[in-house]
Amino acid sequence: MKRSNEPIVWSLFGAGGMLAALIGPVLVFITGIAVPFALMNPDTMSYTHMLAFSRHWAGKSFAFAVIALFMWHAAHRIAILLHDFGVHAVALVKFGCYGLAFLATVIAGYTLLTLGG
Amino acid sequence: MADTEKIIEIEVLRYRPEQDKEPVLQTYKVPFIEDTSVLQGLQYIKDYLDGTLSFRWSCRMAICGSCGMMIDGKPKLSCKTFLRDYYPGKLRIEALAHFPVERDLMVTVKDYVKRLEGLKPYLIPKEARTLEAGEYLQTPQQRDRYMQFSACINCMLCYAACPQYGMNLKFIGSGHMAILDRYNADSRDGGRDERMGPVNEEDGVWGCTAIGYCSVVCPKQVDPAHAINMYKIESTMDYFTRFVTSGEADK
Amino acid sequence: MSIRQPYVRSMDGWWKRNAYYIRYMAREITAVFVAAYALVLLDGVVRLGQGEAAFNGWLQALKTPLSLAFHLVVLATFVYHTWSWFSIMPITMPIMFVGGKRVQPGTITGTGLVAAVITCVAVFFVVEGISS
After folding, report:
1. CA-based nearest residue in chain B for residue C3
2. Among B74, B85, B132, B140, which residue's CB has the most CB atoms within a 10 Å radius?
3. C-alpha of B138 from chain center
């Protein structure tokens, strides 16, 4: 009787899903539509502003949380999707999906930490 | 006022291991009236058209759980499904999905029963109690906490609805989880920790991907999808706190 | 005595058998768009670390018609995600009683959706306020 380690990824999946559900739409609207197409001040996402945002501990944490949690949420769901579609190479699927999420987490964390501030 | 009798075509997926390599469709023309159930249609076939047709049934009133089968691709109790709803089209009947077919509309039930027995589906008293202590008292709210899960009739429609079970016959499934919670949540019971081992496994609650079709097909409104998904939080909390608290049995 | 030879049926293409299963697959596929958006943001963060010229390249890419189309699709799937997330949330919650009455799934879903609307509106106005 072996206890599953699924709770770890399920917690990340849940956190990411909740975050995406609460602020996903507005985030996509602002970064992908409103600012680039000047529905909001186009300077909002200028290099200077985004650098200042990412140098602040709050901005850093927010950016990290969004990227990492969205990726872990997606990784878990996509791994399950692949299983549902009949891909039965379980270890490979898990390694690929969670591996990608882990990579994104590391890259985001490292970049944000070395931005200064 | 006489009910007018109509005829409906019923296609049954036959399977007789002594003569069929694979299941084969056979069509029957069955007369029916307003309140003829699919079960009665099958009984007509067996009584008048083809005595070799095999199927399970008992109470014919949706309480024994024996007559589950796939009716036009959906898991249903044949005693609770009516021919009038499929007329004038055809009706296809197959054995309950995801279970091996023994013969015609009969499936292998052994695994289901064996797994259920292993989950300790009975009250395990919190403490030893004498007759002199009298009966257990329960508030309506305490009873409501587990009441809907006690309605399970072991018809296995939820297992026929669950593709995760279809792809992994070791998966605990939502029906068993509903029955499990019926006991865990009963104020008279003290066996929660004993029952959690199978729940925390990969084939326990973690085989569930929240499809939810099980609750849609349940003929007794048990809502097994809720039961199994509830335990994901419980299993997760136990996973992270087990080194601190006494936790659930790690056998 | 009859022969037993239990017949196991295939699960291939199971998700096509039923409209309910197809809707489940649609719900899960939203994850691909969540990942896609996160990778766009990750790209932005990496470019930010590479300097102004690199970051401006990212900003320019956001102004293309392809990016607009992508983000409109992503926006639609995120809205669908919010809706389906809070619709499914009640089944993961423990059975709760308030004032002797069972908390209904609709209450949980409704509360979640309201929280999402409030959060989105709040974030919008905070960003709007800061950027002006």
Report:
1. B18
2. B74
3. 28
Tens of pLDDT, residues B95-127: 999 999 999 999 999 999 999 999 999 999 988
**pLDDT at position B1 over 70:** no
- Is the minimum CB–CB distance between A61 and chain C shorter than 8 Å? no
Question: Quick check: A26 and C120 in contact, CB under 8 A?
Answer: yes
pTM score: 0.92
Query: Residues B208-217: what's their mean pLDDT?
Result: 97
**Statement: C15-131 belongs to CATH 1.20.1300.10:** yes
Both tokens assigned to C56: 């401006």
- DSSP annotation of A33 reads I
| B123 within 8 A of B146, measured Cβ to Cβ | no
Calpha distance C40→C46 (Å, rounded)? 10
List the domain range (segments joined by +) for residue B99. Answer: 6-107
Say what the pLDDT of residue A116 is: 75
Contacts of B110 (CB under 8 A, 6+ apart): none
Cα B167 to Cα C9: distance, rounded to the nearest angstrom: 11
Same domain, B20 and B73: yes
Q: Name which of C49, C63, C70 is nearest A115 (Cβ-Cβ).
A: C49
Cis status of the peptide bond prior to B88, with omega within 30 of 0: yes
> Looking at the structure, do residues B94 and B130 belong to the same domain, yes or no?
no
- In A, which residues are within 8 Å of C28 by CB distance? 77, 80-81, 84
Q: What is the CATH number of domain A6-113?
A: 1.20.1300.10
Residue C99 pLDDT class (50, 70, 90 cuts): confident
Q: Determine the pLDDT at residue B251.
A: 41
Does B210 lie in the same domain as B168? yes
Place of tokens 């739409």: A25
Please determine, for the modelled complex, whether the ipTM score is greater than 0.90: yes
